[in-house]
Design brief:
Elements lengths: L4 E2 L3 E5 L5 H8 L2 H6 L8 H19 L3 E6 L5 E8 L7 E7 L8 H15 L5 E6 L4 H9 L3 E6 L8 E7 L5
Parallel strand pairs: 5-6
Antiparallel strand pairs: 1-2, 2-3, 3-4, 4-5, 6-8, 7-8
């Protein structure tokens, strides 16, 4: 994976197994559990397996994945943001999640802009999707700031709840 991606306040880098304790805290945070769902991770070992089979495998398979997001000033981990490729979506998806203590500070928008540039410049993607629960107002605001537009209702599986599918055309930069 490439060197860290730096924004004004944040550093984005590939996840490594040593990030498992942070990931365990994030995936069991109230916001994650409410809007993304329980992944059943209860131990650091569970989180390490989740990272290796998820983000780390995605880097090898697709050249991208979710990225660890930390504050540049002190290295504090604040969340994740990156690109996902799901079998259930034709387009690559932008995904993000932040610990509650770091929500509302603009980190999702800031890291999201950096990932959009990465998608356009490094990966040559022409379009991205995002899926979000209809009542997740904060994520819907972030996606609107990034230029995503509502397209339709979407279900990951026939049994899963309805989500909003949003899309964004990535125009090449000169």
């Amino acid at each position: 994976m490439s060197p860290p991606l730096l924004t004004e306040r944040l550093a984005l880098r590939a996840f490594v197994p040593a990030d498992a304790a942070f990931v365990l805290a994030l995936v069991n945070s109230p916001g994650w559990l409410r809007y993304i769902g329980d992944r059943g991770l209860r131990t650091v070992a569970d989180a390490e397996t989740y990272l290796v089979q998820g983000s780390v495998a995605s880097y090898a398979r697709h050249g991208f994945g979710l990225l660890h997001v930390s504050r540049r000033e002190d290295g504090t981990p604040v969340g994740m943001c990156g690109l996902l490729k799901r079998d259930t979506l034709p387009d690559v998806e932008l995904g993000f999640a932040f610990l509650g203590a770091h929500e509302g500070l603009g980190y999702a928008s800031e890291s999201g802009r950096a990932v959009l540039e990465l998608a356009r410049q490094r990966h040559g993607l022409q379009r991205l999707a995002a899926i979000v629960q209809p009542d997740n107002a904060a994520s819907l605001r972030v996606l609107a700031k990034l230029g995503f537009i509502y397209e339709r209702e979407f279900r990951l599986t026939a049994e899963s709840p309805a989500l909003h599918l949003l899309g964004l055309a990535l125009h090449p930069t000169a």
